[in-house]
Automatic annotation (TrEMBL):
Pfam families, sorted: Fer4_NifH (PF00142)
UniProt-recorded Gene Ontology molecular function terms: 4 iron, 4 sulfur cluster binding; ATP binding; metal ion binding; oxidoreductase activity, acting on iron-sulfur proteins as donors; oxidoreductase activity, acting on the CH-CH group of donors, iron-sulfur protein as acceptor
Reactions it catalyzes: chlorophyllide a + oxidized 2[4Fe-4S]-[ferredoxin] + 2 ADP + 2 phosphate = protochlorophyllide a + reduced 2[4Fe-4S]-[ferredoxin] + 2 ATP + 2 H2O
EC number: 1.3.7.7
Family stated for the protein in its record: Belongs to the NifH/BchL/ChlL family.
Positions contributing to [4Fe-4S] cluster binding: 121, 155
Protein's name in the database: Light-independent protochlorophyllide reductase iron-sulfur ATP-binding protein
Lineage, opening ranks: Eukaryota, Sar, Rhizaria, Cercozoa, Imbricatea
Organism field: Paulinella micropora
Positions annotated to bind Mg(2+): 40
HAMAP family hit by this protein: ChlL_BchL
GO biological process terms on file: chlorophyll biosynthetic process; photosynthesis, dark reaction
Amino acid sequence: MTAFRPDGEGSLQVHQDPTVRIEEGALVIAVYGKGGIGKSTTSSNLSAAFSKLGKRVLQIGCDPKHDSTFTLTRRMVPTVIDILETVDFHTEELRPEDYVFEGFNGVMCVESGGPPAGTGCGGYVTGQTVKLLKEHHLLEDTDVVIFDVLGDVVCGGFAAPLQHAHYCLIVTANDFDSIFAMNRIVQAINAKAKNYKVRLGGVIANRSEDTDQIDRFNVRTGLRTMAHFKAVDAIRRSRLKKCTIFEMEDESDEVIAVQQEYLNLAQRLLDDVEPLSAEPLKDREIFDLLGYD
C-alpha cells in the first residue's frame, strides 16, 4: 500500500509498495518524453485509436497539472489526490465513479494529480492510483492501460509507472533537446528493466517534418520509430477544441492520414511489438552525434 504522510512543512512523500503491480491481461504502455513535446496529445489520440479498434481503454494522467485527458473528457476532471483529500485519505470510502471518468468512445480516464507546486514529489500518487483501480476491479475488464507521464525521468517518483508497464514509448521531436531527454529516458527504462517487466517499445516522432536526427540516434542506440506525426495544424486545433483528432470535423487528407497513423500504431502495439535492447549514449556522444557538418 502506498503510504501518505506529512513530511516537513506540509509536504507529502511517497513510499512505493513493490507488490502493487498490474498483473491482469491488459497491455500496459507508459508514454514518456521531454516536457511540452506532446505526450498528452499523443496518449489521448492513441487511447482513442485503441477504442476505435474495439478495445476497452484506461488512460492514467501522471502529472500534477492534470491535463492528460481533457481532450477525451472535454473537461478538467478531479484528480485522485483531490478526491483522497476530501475523505482524509481513507481509500475505503471511495467509489470508482468518484475518480474514474468516461471519455470519448468509452475511454476511461483517471488523473492522478499531485501536491501543490514546491511541496512534495510529483510522482508519488501513481502507486495509490493503481492500488485503487485494483481494489475496485477496474483493471480486470480493461484491454489497454496508458500511463501519460510528466516530462523527463528525473527521479524515482516519475519513473514509478515503469514498474507497471510492458512497453515504454518515447515521444520526441527531430531536435537536440528532445533527443537528449530521450537518451535519459532510455537510461531509466534500462534500470527498471533489471527488476521489472518493462521494455522499450519504440519512438514516436512528433511535430517534425523530418526525422534525420532521430534516425541517426536510433541507429546508434538500437531504437526504432513506431510512428511519425508531422506538425499538422489540425492537431493543435483539436487541443483548443478540447477533443481528439478523431472528432475533428475537418476531413482533409491530412487529418485522415493522422487518424490512420494512430490506428496503425495502436494495431502494431496490439500485434505484440518485439521489445528493444537499446544502449544509451554518454552526453558527449550525443553532442558529437547530432547536428550538421
